[in-house]
Design brief:
By secondary structure, the chain is mostly beta strands. The protein is built from no helices and ten strands. It has a six-stranded antiparallel β-sheet, with no helix packed on it. A four-stranded antiparallel β-sheet has the order 4-9-6-7, with no helix packed on it. A hairpin with a 2-residue loop joins strand 1 and strand 2.
Length: 114
Amino acid sequence: MNCINWNELEWDDVMPGMKRKVIHAESFTMVLVDLTPNLGLSFHNHPHEQAILLMEGGVEFTLEDKTRTIGPGDVVRIPPGAEHGGKVGDQHTQLIDLFTPQRDEFPASVKKGA
């Protein structure tokens, strides 16, 4: 069985206020993202389909021309090529991103102590 524990992986700093842990599988990439309060999330798009599961905190999220505040338990599906971005609310926020196909440009996280 291939089992990976998030707690055994090092955080990678993406930019000030954002860090992540990345796991690759054959056909998808899963990312645990940690965000500081009030962080702006720049608008962008990519050819990957994406799902976001908000674990804690909140984000004012815009997908194409629709904006809504998402919170714990919300799942947002982002079609390939769709413009999206937003702003983290006033609380520490964690989410899980799932991308298919793989995001090869994201380096896989290393195990602590490796």
